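help with this:

***
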Amino acid sequence: MKRRIFAADSSWTLVVVPSLSKLCLLTIVDNFEAVAKMPLFEELQPTEKHFIEERLSPDLPLHLTASRVSDGVYWKRCCKQRWKLCDVSHYSHSWKRMFFERHLENIIELFTPGVTEPQEVLNVVPFCQRYVKRLDISQLLLPIKEPQGEEEVFTLILEPEDELNQSKMGHFDFSILLDRLTNLEELSLVYRVKQCGMNFEWKMFEMTDQDCELLAKALKSCETLKVLRLRFSQVEDKKCRVLVKSLLDHPSLRELDFSYNLIGDRGARGIGKLLSRSHLEILDLSDNKISSHGAQAIAHALSKNSTLLSLNLHFNHLTDVGGEAIGRALMSNETLRHLNLGGTGVTWHTAVSLSKVLQQNNTLKTIVLSCNKLGDVGGKALEEGVSENISLTKCDLGLTEVDEQSLSFISERVCRNQDSELRKGK
């Protein structure tokens, strides 16, 4: 006689009973700290690992996940949990790289000298050093200033200014970190404090002498670095020369951006020396305090350089002395492709010099001369220069007082070169 058994739950069915393999995988998820160290975990199939990674807690300690959990869904979940904006295309479509780069950036940006222990940063390095290729540090904090009594304030007033500067503690010390990041290729720094509110002080927006010395030491030891950006940090001639000295003969540096600082002619001479002893391809010195003397030093180096592809001197006061020097340098330079002299105080004299360059140079692709008083004479000179030129695909003459006829002629020739470039590409 057959017996029938009725389930207490009418919706129960054999279909929802988990398989033994699934139960085992769920057990691994619940006990990952113990199981991850076993050889068994490495023997799992890719689909089984994916199943586990979809369910692991994003809050697991890095010493468990960094080396054992591969790039993919787990690290995507970790990123999405911590940050609202997660464009993985900026990280070569690697979620793991995104997590470790942004995690290390956050630690450095919140590092408070004298309060945060440097070991807190160094503890993360063994887990992230394989994945960190770029660091974009948008703020660096100063030490917390303790309240001072009347006697202490009086003592500080009596102390010589040099002694006070020497005793100032700087920002985060990059010399303890960069040589450990063996895959670092790109470093962007801004010495400033975001959202400082009522605590605003000018020193929050500049690197100290101590910062400069330590960063120079760190840069020299980071032989994989290809791109260095140090902007909005009140870098003047002295600091510029200290940094440049550490970059001489650097084996891999290709791009240097010191824009929006206070670099003058002495700093520019140091950078001229760097052009002679490096493989720089991109140099951005826009919005500094370089005058004609500094421009002449850069031009001298440019005349002998064979690697630089882009030079940006936008918003420096070069005048025609500097502009013409650069024009003469380009008569012998066959490498530079992009030149920006916008807002540099040059006139038609520089336009005439560059016109001669364009008549024989078929390397330059971009020239920016906007916000300069070139006038009709400058426009006519550039007309003559571009008439036979076959390489120039952009010529920015906005706000230069060049007449419409010259602008139209130059634009027509540039468009012709653009079309020719496109046909070559096909």
User: Anything to note?
Assistant: Residues 87-143+164-234 form one domain. Residues 254 and 280 are 4 Å apart (CA to CA). Residues 404-425 form the longest helix (22 residues). The mean pLDDT is 89.
